[in-house]
Amino acid sequence: MSAARPLTTLRTLAVVATLPLLLTACGYGSEAKSDDTAKVAAGAKKIDGLDSVRIGYFGNLTHATALVGREQGLFQKELGATKAEYATFNAGPSEIEALNSGSIDIGWIGPSPAINGYTKSDGKSLRIIGGSASGGVKLVVNPKKIKSLKDVKGKKIATPQLGNTQDVAFLNWAAEQGYKIDPQSGKGDVTVVRTDNKITPDAYKSGSIDGAWVPEPTASKLVAEGGKVLLDESTLWPDKKFVITNIIVSQKFLDAHPKAVEAVLKASVESNKWINANPDAAKTAANKQLAADSGKALPANVLDPAWSSISFTDDPLASTLNTEAAHAVKAGLLTKPDLKGIYDLTLLNKVLKAEGESTVDDAGLGVG
């Protein structure tokens, strides 16, 4: 877009970028389905009279809280006789559309789509109700073409999608290096190539990209193909912590069915507790669910380094969400948003207190 036509909001860019995904996908994502193997306890009752709760997530290790919670049957356990149904997604905007349409009720998602969905609806569509993961994002490059950070100039770097969380992070980092890039076209001192994570390893092997700023396990897949980690995004953040995955819910569903939302949050907290206490078993469980969803498990040389770079936390790291929004504004992908009210951590903190855990903060961006 030319300088004479200022960029408006991230939502416009993200929706345009997502059209090919929507056209080639079945609906908004995979069809919501329940787990036939999940056991419903004898005598269990439906929560809020609901037949089902529909949960969305991505096939990424950064969504391992959902992967493990599903594979271990924790969501079904907490929902009683209300069936846990699941849908998987490739991109944040498509999950936001599914949430807005009522195709799912609750979802695991990155910060940029959550910000976009909230601002697009003037603060009426969703709430962030919990955290899930931090870290797990890297700049991986072809070491024959890029030997240092300064060598990124003039190269072709992939990000998953126009306006997605990693795209915003890379554009912000590039601007801090003094590089000028048109955020919409991706052209400039560095060429940004928006590429689906599933395709990125093949694009790297073919030489059509020189590197990628991507989440796990894509980053480790590139390393397995001979790539080198040039930068771990966590090193750019205070205490090396930044939100990569949040839990969101439809405001309509939250208002109508708080007990069901609380049950899902309890399962999420239990999942993270189990993951952190049993990292090897949790890694295996997450990989098993990935294989069930995609038909292919991750090999150890991808799974192990990917898993070790992600931390799992119930804290949504709200202050970093505000910073990520500021990065999107700085990059020209978003007009300055009013995020007041994007968080409602009431039910999460209720669950954490009951578990004897410390409560978490919304950085002044909570409701009320």
Automatic annotation (TrEMBL):
Protein's organism: Streptomyces gilvifuscus
* Predominant location: membrane
User: Which cell locations does it reside in?
Assistant: Cell inner membrane; Periplasm
* Name used for this protein in its record: Aliphatic sulfonate ABC transporter substrate-binding protein
Q: Which domain of life is it from?
A: Bacteria
Q: Which UniProt keywords apply?
A: Cell inner membrane, Cell membrane, Membrane, Signal, Transport
> What InterPro entries does its record include?
ABC_SsuA_sub-bd, NrtA/CpmA_ABC-bd_dom
Whether Membrane counts among this entry's keywords is: yes
Q: What lineage is this protein's organism placed in?
A: Bacteria, Bacillati, Actinomycetota, Actinomycetes, Kitasatosporales
Q: Which family does it belong to?
A: Belongs to the bacterial solute-binding protein SsuA/TauA family.
Membrane-crossing ranges are: none
Q: Which segment of the chain is annotated as a signal peptide?
A: 1-25
The record's annotation in PROSITE patterns points to:
PROKAR_LIPOPROTEIN (PS51257)
State if Cell inner membrane is listed as a keyword. Answer: yes
